[in-house]
Structures are given as C-alpha cells and as structure tokens.
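Usage

Read records sequentially. Each one opens with the input sequence:
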Amino acid sequence: MTSWIFLVLEWIVFGVVVYAIHKWYYKNRPKPLPKSSMKKDSVLDENSNLFASKAEHYHWRIKTNIKSLRKNANAVFFDLDALSLENGYGMGLRLAEQKGIGDVSNFYVFKNNIEDRDLLKYIHVDETPMGAWQVYLLMTSQTQLPVWWHAGCIKRTFIWRDDDLYNIEPLRRYELSGLLKTDILTPSVEVEKGSGLTTAQIYCSYWHDWQGLVREHVEIQMQNGQVTSYEKKDCFVIYNYNCGIRF
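and closes with the structure output:
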C-alpha cells in the first residue's frame, strides 16, 4: 500500500515539474512579431514586383520538380522566358552525389556527347531588366538545388516577401518593422544602355546561415543578345550571423 502511495506522489511531482518547465518555456521563448504589425507599411510586400514573382515561380519549379527536370531540364525556360538556348543545344541537370565531403547539383548545356557547365556561352538573353534578372536567377540556381554534406554552405533563403524574413528563426526575436519599411530588401534591376552595350545592376537580398542577412549586388553586361560579363560587385551584410557549424 505504501509503495502505491509513493508511486502516485512521484507522478504528481513529475507532472508539476513538467507543467512548470512548459509554462516557463512558452513565457520566455523568443516570439515573432504578429504578422499584421510586421506587414503594416511594409515596402517589401507592397512593392512585391515582377522580379520577386518570377523568382518565386522559378524556385518552386527547381525545388519541387527535380525528377521531371532530370528528364527535361529545358523546362526551366518556361519560367526563364527571356532566355533561350542556341539552336541544337539542350539543358541538362546533374544532381549532387552522396560521395566525398560534399557535392552540389548543377545545370549544364549539351549537344551530342559534349557537355559544358559554362551556361552563359550558349544562352541568348533579352537585353531588358527582366532578361538580366533571369540570368541572375539561372546563375544562382545552385543555392536552391539539392546539395550533399559540406556543400550545404552554399544554400540561401531569398527574401521575396515579408513571410520569408520573419520565418527566419534567428531574426524572430528582433523588431523588424522598421527594416520592412525600407526598400533594402526588395529585388531591383537598374539598366543602362550605351555604345551597343547593356549594363544591368542587380540587387537582391537573402539569408545565409554563415553570413546572415545579405544584400547582394551583381553586374551583368549584355551585347547582341549574349552575356559578355557576369560579376559579383558587392555583398552588404545587413545583419551579421554565423550558425557556428564548421565545415
């Protein structure tokens, strides 16, 4: 009889401890701001533009249709409709292999038995802001495709709308409404034309677990429908962060 009493008392004490821990955790955990307050006066969502929309559709395709892309990677041009391949060439997709210390997936161009990862040599581009933007999306595809082990350090979470920002765990404890009222997160493209050369300045923001919140600047030069230069100009760190994992 005495043993049953002690057993009941142990369960009561255990329940009280669990309840206390549960209550403390939910009281002290970092809480994200309410969505309604974060979206108020948000430049990012209000200025949700064609660049962000195009990127969301393209990233959805390359992240959720891997099997079909392996059979027909030319499907990327359904979204990247300002780009096209030279006649006679096709687009292929090689997926990261689980070997060595890491591997990335990559697109490649092929013709007969020849394969080349230098995509821009075979791409025709409309010399417009959207054409330049789609070149940027194509060139950053690796950050959205499957990776293996150490190659995970290239993964990015691009910021297209408010949700993308406040769903990032390390940022949830901060007041972000002020940042959302600026245009620093909104993807943008500036184009200048002169002497037969079209120069595009691409600005895009993303989250990286070893850098933090970053505003990237890429310059793309185009001439006669070809990309003549693709150069990363700057990476401005808005919020510095390192997840602490060492590869």
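Summary fields computed downstream for this record:
- The first helix runs from residue 2 to 28.
- The longest strand covers residues 226-240.
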